[in-house]
User: Fold this.
Amino acid sequence: MASRPRPIRLTLVGLFIVPMLSLLALWGYAASVTLGNAIQERDYSVQDAEIGAPADALAAELTQERLQAFMWLSTDRQEPVEPLADAQKRTDAAIAAFRRGADAARGVMFASGTHHARLDGAPDR
Assistant:
Protein backbone atom coordinates (compact mmCIF):
# COMPACT_ATOMS: atom_id res chain seq x y z
CA MET A 1 0.00 0.00 0.00
CA ALA A 2 1.11 3.45 -0.76
CA SER A 3 1.12 5.96 2.04
CA ARG A 4 -1.18 8.89 1.70
CA PRO A 5 0.45 12.27 1.61
CA ARG A 6 -0.33 14.60 4.48
CA PRO A 7 -3.03 17.11 3.84
CA ILE A 8 -1.74 20.63 3.15
CA ARG A 9 -3.90 22.02 5.95
CA LEU A 10 -2.15 19.84 8.57
CA THR A 11 1.26 20.81 7.20
CA LEU A 12 0.46 24.53 7.38
CA VAL A 13 -0.95 24.24 10.91
CA GLY A 14 2.21 22.44 11.99
CA LEU A 15 4.38 25.12 10.43
CA PHE A 16 2.48 27.90 12.22
CA ILE A 17 2.01 26.26 15.62
CA VAL A 18 5.69 25.79 16.45
CA PRO A 19 6.71 29.45 15.93
CA MET A 20 3.52 30.69 17.61
CA LEU A 21 4.17 28.60 20.70
CA SER A 22 7.77 29.82 20.79
CA LEU A 23 6.66 33.45 20.51
CA LEU A 24 4.02 32.93 23.19
CA ALA A 25 6.59 31.42 25.56
CA LEU A 26 9.02 34.26 24.87
CA TRP A 27 6.28 36.85 25.44
CA GLY A 28 5.31 35.18 28.71
CA TYR A 29 8.90 35.26 29.96
CA ALA A 30 9.38 38.91 28.97
CA ALA A 31 6.07 39.89 30.57
CA SER A 32 6.91 38.12 33.83
CA VAL A 33 10.32 39.82 34.08
CA THR A 34 8.91 43.24 33.21
CA LEU A 35 5.92 42.93 35.53
CA GLY A 36 8.13 41.81 38.42
CA ASN A 37 10.43 44.81 37.97
CA ALA A 38 7.46 47.18 37.70
CA ILE A 39 5.98 45.88 40.96
CA GLN A 40 9.33 46.23 42.73
CA GLU A 41 9.72 49.79 41.43
CA ARG A 42 6.25 50.69 42.66
CA ASP A 43 6.96 49.20 46.09
CA TYR A 44 10.17 51.21 46.25
CA SER A 45 8.35 54.41 45.33
CA VAL A 46 5.70 53.79 47.98
CA GLN A 47 8.34 53.08 50.62
CA ASP A 48 10.28 56.18 49.66
CA ALA A 49 7.17 58.31 50.00
CA GLU A 50 6.22 56.74 53.34
CA ILE A 51 9.67 56.61 54.93
CA GLY A 52 12.10 58.66 52.83
CA ALA A 53 10.48 62.08 53.10
CA PRO A 54 9.82 61.81 56.86
CA ALA A 55 13.39 60.55 57.37
CA ASP A 56 14.79 63.56 55.51
CA ALA A 57 12.62 65.90 57.57
CA LEU A 58 13.72 64.14 60.75
CA ALA A 59 17.38 64.53 59.84
CA ALA A 60 16.89 68.25 59.16
CA GLU A 61 15.02 68.79 62.44
CA LEU A 62 17.64 66.88 64.42
CA THR A 63 20.34 69.03 62.89
CA GLN A 64 18.48 72.20 63.83
CA GLU A 65 17.85 70.96 67.37
CA ARG A 66 21.52 70.09 67.83
CA LEU A 67 22.49 73.51 66.51
CA GLN A 68 20.10 75.22 68.94
CA ALA A 69 21.39 73.08 71.82
CA PHE A 70 24.99 73.91 70.91
CA MET A 71 24.22 77.62 70.73
CA TRP A 72 22.38 77.54 74.06
CA LEU A 73 25.13 75.56 75.80
CA SER A 74 27.95 77.63 74.30
CA THR A 75 26.55 80.81 75.87
CA ASP A 76 26.62 79.24 79.34
CA ARG A 77 22.85 78.97 79.21
CA GLN A 78 22.45 82.74 79.07
CA GLU A 79 20.39 82.87 75.87
CA PRO A 80 16.64 82.27 76.02
CA VAL A 81 15.70 78.61 75.93
CA GLU A 82 12.60 79.14 73.72
CA PRO A 83 14.37 78.49 70.37
CA LEU A 84 15.70 75.21 71.76
CA ALA A 85 12.26 74.23 73.07
CA ASP A 86 10.71 75.05 69.69
CA ALA A 87 13.35 72.95 67.93
CA GLN A 88 12.64 70.07 70.31
CA LYS A 89 8.90 70.27 69.55
CA ARG A 90 9.57 70.23 65.81
CA THR A 91 11.91 67.26 66.25
CA ASP A 92 9.28 65.41 68.27
CA ALA A 93 6.75 66.03 65.47
CA ALA A 94 9.25 64.77 62.88
CA ILE A 95 9.88 61.63 64.97
CA ALA A 96 6.14 61.00 65.16
CA ALA A 97 5.78 61.43 61.39
CA PHE A 98 8.68 59.05 60.78
CA ARG A 99 7.18 56.45 63.09
CA ARG A 100 3.82 56.71 61.29
CA GLY A 101 5.57 56.15 57.97
CA ALA A 102 7.52 53.22 59.37
CA ASP A 103 4.33 51.71 60.75
CA ALA A 104 2.63 52.10 57.37
CA ALA A 105 5.51 50.30 55.64
CA ARG A 106 5.93 47.64 58.32
CA GLY A 107 4.43 44.85 56.24
CA VAL A 108 6.42 45.70 53.12
CA MET A 109 9.82 46.82 54.28
CA PHE A 110 10.20 45.30 57.73
CA ALA A 111 8.95 41.82 56.95
CA SER A 112 11.53 40.21 59.24
CA GLY A 113 10.62 42.43 62.18
CA THR A 114 14.22 43.01 63.25
CA HIS A 115 14.36 46.58 61.97
CA HIS A 116 11.04 47.49 63.53
CA ALA A 117 12.12 45.98 66.85
CA ARG A 118 15.05 48.41 66.81
CA LEU A 119 12.69 51.27 66.00
CA ASP A 120 10.33 50.25 68.81
CA GLY A 121 13.28 50.22 71.20
CA ALA A 122 14.31 53.78 70.30
CA PRO A 123 13.69 56.29 73.08
CA ASP A 124 10.69 58.58 72.61
CA ARG A 125 12.45 61.41 74.40
